Amino acid sequence: MWPNGTSPGPCFRPTNITLEERRLIASPWFAASFCLVGLASNLLALSVLAGARQGSSHARSSFLTFLCGLVLTDFMGLLVTGVIVVSQHAILFDWHAVDPSCRLCQFMGVIMVFFGLCPLLLGAAMASERYLGITRPFSRPTVASQRRAWATVGLVWASALALGLLPLLGVGRYTVQYPGSWCFLTLGAQPGDVAFGLLFTLLGSFSVGLSFLLNTISVATLCHVYHGQEAAQQRPRDCEVEMMAQLMGIMVVASFCWMPLLVFIAQTVLRSPPAMSPTGQLSRATEQQLLIYLRVATWNQILDPWVYILFRRAVIRRLHPRLSARPRSLSLQPQLTQRRTVQ
């Protein structure tokens, strides 16, 4: 039943939760601490990135550009969503009274989809960049690599934003989710909800799968070159190991944080009979599962910067001193040139 007998806006679904239950679930101190830790971690990573960009090679400069875009995305995602969630947890406002036109809910739904997809898409873009840099070093102009990297980051942002705006155009819906502190796509059985949920899931899963495939090929190529090449040439081994270690770490974090939520969304919208009742109500167990998987997914924004901070060459050398003990450098170019000559 809705307050004062008013009809709900399009973003509201019937939920059975009391104010006391919301107080127990929605802790403003936990939400604020979570956001502060994430923001501080991303700021630290940005400061380390600013120092690392000075004097870096073309290939590494392009990779650091992608990392900068990823960290900026995670930082802004925590900042924007954190302001809304912490405010709601602090004062426990009634969303129906504060946002009867559902504009705030639609805005939060867009940014949740946007900041959720961007890390996955950027991870796939970084994997593609390293794959081309390792297996096709002659196919990319080095002068424009950094500019092209920023253009790719912008294209990823635009693609994620375009997908997030689809519910505003009638494909899918954003609704207030349990316990009433956030908005996200609707896990309903309507064609638009199913189409948008599957599109979000397939795009995210495809990005993770593409990252896994390209990173596997890149690592296999590096291992083959490092064990088979005798001459010391241009690119340092430590640099290649560092970039691939960071990229593999980002991929593993994204997989563990996001795949449970993506699989859950696909299973729920395809469930028969539908998980959502004709009135728009989900079972308490389904709502709680969605909340848990969403909280796991948000850890991605905190762990991403630490992957870069901990998987730097200085840290890798401390853990594996043999990497710094080798005076020679390695390059993929001579071996690839030799292959072309033989052919």
UniProtKB/TrEMBL annotation:
Its main location: membrane. Keywords: Cell membrane, Disulfide bond, G-protein coupled receptor, Glycoprotein, Membrane, Phosphoprotein, Receptor, Transducer, Transmembrane, Transmembrane helix. It is found in: Cell membrane. One of its GO terms (molecular function) is thromboxane receptor activity. The keyword Hydrolase does not apply. Residues 41-308 form the G-protein coupled receptors family 1 profile domain. The keyword Disulfide bond applies. InterPro entries: GPCR_Rhodpsn, GPCR_Rhodpsn_7TM, Prostanoid_rcpt, Thbox_rcpt. GO terms for biological process: adenylate cyclase-activating G protein-coupled receptor signaling pathway; inflammatory response; positive regulation of blood pressure; positive regulation of cytosolic calcium ion concentration; positive regulation of vasoconstriction. It is a multi-pass membrane protein. The chain crosses the membrane at residues 29-51, 63-87, 107-128, 149-174, 194-226, 247-270. It comes from the Eukaryota. One of its GO terms (cellular component) is plasma membrane. Pfam families: 7tm_1 (PF00001). Belongs to the G-protein coupled receptor 1 family. This is Thromboxane A2 receptor. It comes from Neomonachus schauinslandi (Hawaiian monk seal). The gene is TBXA2R.
